[in-house]
Protein: Phosphoribosylaminoimidazole-succinocarboxamide synthase
Organism: Terrihabitans soli
Amino acid sequence: MNRRRRIYEGKAKILYEGPEPGTLVQHFKDDATAFNAKKHDVIDGKGVLNNRISEYIFQNLNDIGVPTHFLRRLNMREQLIREVEIIQLEVVVRNVAAGSLSTRLGIEEGTQLPRSIIEFYYKNDALGDPMVSEEHITAFGWASPQEIDDIMSLAIRVNDFLSGLFLGAGIRLVDFKMECGRLWENDMVRIVVADEISPDSCRLWDMKTNEKMDKDRFRRDLGGLVEAYSEVARRLGILTESDNPVAKSGPTLVKG
Ligand code: AIR
Ligand code: ASP
């Protein structure tokens, strides 16, 4: 493989310099981490599935006018994205109680929330991504009040879109995390959806059985992660019916 300049390496992805100025290549690894990387494993085929699922979601968001960093998928593990300045916040949208919300507030997992709730976490591994309020965000200058408004309207649009998309696939969108970036276009700055949206960053439960189809399979040692992600891809129409998700060579993907 030719030598490309590596811009950044995270826990599940690598960013390389792109073919043109203002672009980057986002590479999906098979690594899975949880609890701030205290738990780590390599799961064959996860990166390929997340690349494809995230492509599908971001392309659809672009198509309905929700701005994202996504340009196009390049190959099994890589996509071409616009270079943005990542805002150091994890934006979590919740529809159903689960995970840290259930732990923190003692609300039973699976309880429908009275309305969708948006939370912000400061992206800082050393601190374990602590939850922060708008007060902290504006006081410390991580984002301006206008940017927070833009982020919240994007989060609501993404939540509405994803809830409907997964509903059509018999999957409940319990919660998800998204990241945003600042995109410069001439003298204008726009907030766009960045990073990835995949079963690594969403909680997805089968509508009928409540079976988990997301990274909680890894976090909670349930096994069957690749099978679950493959099933998500299959239901979204990304994998063909005949593909064997656990074949040695990894999942076969539909062209296009
Ligand atoms: N998330 C948060 N940080 C990293 C990720 N992937 C996602 C989880 C879950 C949601 O944010 O995958 O979908 C809420 O996570 P938690 O742990 O706060 O309940
Ligand atoms: N990926 C993050 C970590 O390594 C958080 C998570 O998804 O649980 O801690």
User: Anything to note?
Assistant: The pocket of 5-aminoimidazole ribonucleotide (ligand 1) is lined by residues 90, 92, 98-101, 175-177, 200-203, 215 (CB under 6 Å). The first strand starts at residue 6 and ends at 9.
